[in-house]
Amino acid sequence: MARCHLHKFGGSSLADADCYRRVAHILLTHGNSDDLVVVSAAGKSTNFLYKLLELKDSAQLWQQELQVLIGFQQNLIEQLLSNEQATSLRERLSIDKYQLISLFSQDELKEYERSEVVSFGERWSARLLAALLRESGVAASDVDSRTLLLADEGGVPQIMLVESRQRVRQVLNDHPNERLIITGFICANSRGETLLLGRNGSDYSATLIASLAAIERVTIWTDVEGVFNADPNKINDAKLLKSLSLDEANRLAHLGSPVLHNRSLQPLFDTEVSLAVRSSYASHTDFTLIAPKSSSASAPVVTNLASVSLFNFRITTEVSNLAELLAASGLKPLAHWQLAHGRVELAFTHENQQQVRAILESEVPGISDLLLREDLGLVALVSADAELYRRGFARLLSRDARPLFNDGLSLVTLVPCANVNLLTQKVHRRCAGPRKRIGVLLLGVGNIGEAWVDLFTRARTSLNKELEASVELVGLLSSKKALLKEEGIGLSSWKQEFEQQATPWLYDHLFEQLQALDCDEIIALDISASAELTLQYPEFFARGIHVVSANKLAGSGPLAFYRELKQQLGNRRLFWRYNASCGAGLPVQHALNDLHNSGDSIEAVGGIFSGTLCWLFEHYDASKPFSELVMEAKSLGITEPDPRDDLSGRDMQRKLLILAREIGHEIELEDIELNSLVPATLADIPLEQFLERITELDSEMLQQLQAAAEQNKVLRYVAGLDVIEGRLKAGVGLQWVDREHAYANLTPGDNVFVIRSAFYQDNPLIIRGPGAGREVTAAAVQSDLAQICRDLVQE
Prior knowledge:
By secondary structure, this protein is of the alpha/beta class.
């Protein structure tokens, strides 16, 4: 039966006697009786051995330092083993000591002999751990990997896979049902001379032996819990990744991950071996599993390098040839950019700088004007779905950043070294941190509310994708009942949920419930016509809740109240948008703001802001009495239930006030002259009496129509605001207008807005279209909601 698990323990996991005991406990509780184990040198033993070589090279005394190192190993033996086991290891350690003394006593050490000196660290670790396991009553043997891994010599030893696989499987056959503790970091040439596998060689040993032995799982036990979506030492809310594809892990390692190493992952490709990264200090916690063949992308990971080597040069030959030459030398750039005028930029780690420079200067024809920069650092995001995060990442880049390099698995930029950490934090927060959750509270569940939910249902997926956030409906409110749900309200079942679960509400309780919702932001959509709700806007703002208003009453309320709301908006990052309150979906306020931002000055605003009044006067031609036309419109649902709400002109007066304030005129509603179509004698009587006496409107309206016709004009109910000789004149009422005027030829039910400015004098800017209706009003509310969401996700 094939063995299924290989464990690898690094030097930090074997730093002292307690660490050894912890490792033994892990092997006894998290493994099988025939597991393989690869170990590094204990603690700083390898560094100590290199220091001895340096002392030897510089003709300094090395004997005392050697005694310190031997003493460290003896102490580990004494603390961990009983007399019988300890005696055996002490004897072998004594032999090793004299062998080291013999090596250091030579005039000059060959490279193989220097490698043999360094190999003692791993050999001591393997012996000690095997002995400790045997003392715990389990079968265990230490194995010198120089007897397993055969390599060709070179700058980095190249493992002879066929011969090494035979040796590994022979050793496994010779030691069934026994834990084998194997030295990492070292191998041998065909003459049995010691070779070192280089930086992170023990991790490479582990994955290599696992692939040769067809092991199912490699677990690298280290001093961290696994791979995080950012460096937890730099990003406070970095999160552990539970899974990662091998391709993603490989790219992350190439970009300088402190946990994963590019070379260590290569043996896992084209195998079924999975790799786990776990903490030997907290073996009970979650960990990261790297799957060999994963089709799904992991959560994005943000990584950085404080500084890189950036080569900039002109090249006249094919860049692909250069890429192949560098790849053959194991020098794939971190990122590259094709610039203008035949120039190319390649980014590498500093440790590859000299080798890359040598190739560029001597082996590649057609290269000139070679420049090197070291003042830039790297920030990258790694994910198989990297393209999904490109827009959010790109928005964070300033002028001094390199454009995003995208290889399908990562997005990479370079910025000045001083900016690396700040940009890393921003990218993590935007792309890899918790998705911003924006809760939406719908105030009004009637016709427009229903239309908005339908629209939001269709738009939500693309909006969330664009924002890289989660916008959710969390509350529904009618005049009598409310439903708030932490987990969100189903968009396909909201009516049933509201009907079955909504409860009576009061404002104090409502605000407490809103405060308790687990949302980063809350946006209230006021599509009611409630004056009482409008009075609660200061409390919404005080609690950090943004507002979208189709309700006209706040924007056209008393000036002191309006100023208070604007002051609250200026005191913190709050948004209040109310485009739907005037013109429904027509971009009137957008146009006014754009003109202002362009340096224009608005001189006059006028128009027909009521779909009902537009319909009435487009149809009124005296072929039937005006009152009969009003009753027809009422039966079609064009007017309000009480037609006087339309005929009074008060609605248009409020809309004109909203626009006046939007362009900077701080006026009250009473400053706008109102000429109502409803005589004072009919204004305050009950609706039934008004409808009985509605024919009293006909005489005056007919006279107005005939008088206008005598001058070849038509009758329209118009709102207008103009600045004449520095004085503001604003009013709403009947006007006679030319038959060619913008007010004269509208589709019944439309609104029209005419804007005159310094830029638009003789030919005013005209905006016309449906100014009422559930769909267009819902669309205006959705547009304002989307814009607030965009503002909220900006840094």
